[in-house]
Amino acid sequence: SSCLNWGDKNNQVEHIFKLNLILKNHPCFLGTTRLELIQNNQCEGLVLLRFNEAEDKKLLILINLDCENINEISWDRESASMNETKLYDLISGSLVTVKTDNNLCSQQLNPGEVMVLTPDDDDIKFIEQKSMVKNTLPQRVYLQKLKAKVLLIHTIFKGFVNLENIDIEKKAISFAVDPIEFIRSFNKVSKESMVIVFDVQKDMKRQVMIPPGFSLLIKCRAGFRAQIIDKIINEKKSDKTSLGYEEGILTYDSKEHFALFPPKNTRQNHREYNLNIRIFESSDTASNAI
Q1: To pair with 22 at 20 to 30 A between CA atoms, which of 35, 70, 93, 180?
Q2: Distance in angstroms (rounded) separating the CA atoms of residues 53 and 58
Q3: DSSP designation for 182
Q4: Contacts of 30 by beta carbon, 8 Å cutoff, 6+ apart
Q5: What is the pTM of this model?
Q6: Rounded CA gap, 31 and 37, in Å?
């Protein structure tokens, strides 16, 4: 953190925030993107073309590897498949006019400078809009987390079956809209949800009983991480065993976060466990154990 000057007036926090926004949200950083180095001079610099064919989006990443000297980096216009000479830098938000000489393009970079150039000025607006959104997860990652949970739930309640004819993405959205009703849909015996709800805003001082076969659903307005701990104390030492760890996921309406602990194996006798919750408020991080 000392290198970031965290808390100092002159720091890199805003710069890193901008880089993370670009990496998380621009289509050219998705898994299907094609990468190609297209620089054609021998200076200490790189020109990386990132092309997402499915989204028809391109970025040129210009990097000056020399942290002491100015470098001019060049590339072929044909290799970049960009006819535009006026490009937009996603990092600074500024308009960049590249020099051209027939098929050759070039741009001067300051020592250690990096530019992320796009021919589409809508990309600038897109990144600015994403900076206003509280949900830090990219949509594709959000859906991946939901899908993983849905597959786990299916396995617990129905075993290993062929899901070829099931729309997992539709199921994932249904799970995020109403996780209790989603779990209830697996109960073919009664209309019982088989879910015990723990609301962080109301239940932090409450001891919660979870009957055999029931799931534990934790709800919180802020993001959180939760862990169930089995604390065994004997004459010689005290041991802690984790029985499950979950991160809060946003509900589909983005109003709150939730985490689901599926049913555990039934023991012969009831046991008392600790629920450790770390809440991520906007200003600080609070850790609670109950």
Answers
A1: 70
A2: 8
A3: H
A4: 52, 55, 140
A5: 0.65
A6: 17
- Determine the Cα–Cα distance for residues 8 and 11; give it in Å rounded to an integer: 6
Q: What are the structure tokens assigned to 191, written together?
A: 């209309």
Q: What angle do CA 118, 31, 165 make, to 5 degrees?
A: 130
Separation between Cα atoms, residue 216 and residue 218, nearest integer Å:
7
Residue with token string 């006019």: 97
What 3-state class would DSSP assign to 208?
Answer: coil
249-250 and 238-247 strand pairing: unpaired
* Chain center to CA of 94: 27
Tokens coding 182: 């989603």
Alpha-carbon distance of 238 to 249, in angstroms, equals 32
Provide the token pair at 217: 């659903």
- Tokens representing 112? 């250690």
280, pLDDT greater than 70? yes
pLDDT tens-place string over residues 68-107: 999 999 999 999 988 899 999 999 999 999 999 988 999 9
Q: Do 277 and 287 contact (CB within 8 A), yes or no?
A: yes
The sign one gets for the Cα dihedral 125, 127, 132, 137 is positive
- The pLDDT, as a whole number, for residue 3 is 61
235's tokens:
């004459």
Contact 115, 91 (CB under 8 A): yes
pLDDT digits (tens, 9 = 90+) for 179-223: 999 999 998 888 888 999 999 999 888 888 988 889 999 999 999
